[in-house]
Amino acid sequence: MPVKKPYVSAYRQEQARQTRRAILSAAAELFVDPGYAATPLTAVAARAGVAIQTLYKVFGSKQALLSALVDVTIAGDDEPVALPDRDFVAEIRAASGLRAKLERYSRQIAEVQARQAQMMLALAAAATADPEAAAIWRKNEDDRRRGMLMFATDLLATGEVRPEHTVETVADVLWLAMDVRNYDWLVRRRGWSVDDFRRWYTDTVAAALLP
C-alpha cells in the first residue's frame, strides 16, 4: 500500500514562518541591547510573544538562534537560497570590467552593512567572552573568506589586476574593505552618505588592485 504524505496546510506553514520571524526580530533587538550573554531565551520568547517551548522547538538552542539571526541579517530574508546563488552574484559576474564589478558589489555591501552593522558589532563584542558567540563569529569569518576568495577569482579573470597579486592577496584586500567597522565608522558615526561610502569602497579597492 502506498504511504500517504503528511498533510501540511499553507496556513500552518505561514504561521510557522511568522513565528520564526517574530523570534528572530526579538533576538535582533535583545542580542544588541542588553547583549547576547545578558539575554536569556525566556526574554526572547517573551518579546516575541511565544512560549519558551515554541522557541526551543523552532531553533533548539540559543547558539542556533544566533546563527540563524546572523544568516538572515546578512541575506535580508529567510528564503532558502545560498548567497552564491543570489541575483547580485550573477550580476557581478556579468559586469564588464573590474571597476564595474566593484561598483555593483558596493551596492550590495552598503545594503548588507545597513542591516547588519549593529548586529555584527554586538556579535564581535560578545565573541570576546562567550564561547558560543565566538563560534558563530568564526563561522561568519570563514563564510566571508570563502565569499571574498570567490569574488577575487572573478576579479582576477578580468586580466586587469596588477601581476604581483594572487587570489589570496586580492581576497585580503576585499576582506579588509568590506569589514563592517568601515561602514560603522564612516556612515553611522562620521555621517557619510551611502553614496560616499560606495564611492570610497570602489575607489579604495580599485586603487589597491589596478595598475
Structure commentary:
- This protein is mostly helical and 211 residues long.
- 74% of the residues lie in helices and 0% in strands.
- It is built from ten helices and no strands.
- It has helices spanning 10-35, 41-48, 52-59, 62-75, 87-94, 98-127, 131-156, 167-177, 180-189, 194-209.
- Helix 1 crosses helix 4.
* Most strands sheet: none
Number of helices: 10
How much helicity do the residues have? Answer: over 70%
- Give the overall form: elongated
Write the layout of secondary structure elements.
Layout: H1 10-35, H2 41-48, H3 52-59, H4 62-75, H5 87-94, H6 98-127, H7 131-156, H8 167-177, H9 180-189, H10 194-209
Helix pairs in contact: 1-2, 1-4, 1-6, 4-6, 4-7, 5-6, 6-7, 6-9, 6-10, 7-8, 8-10
Q: What's a concise summary of this model?
A:
The chain is an all-alpha fold and 211 residues long.
List keywords for this structure.
mainly alpha, 211 residues, 10 helices
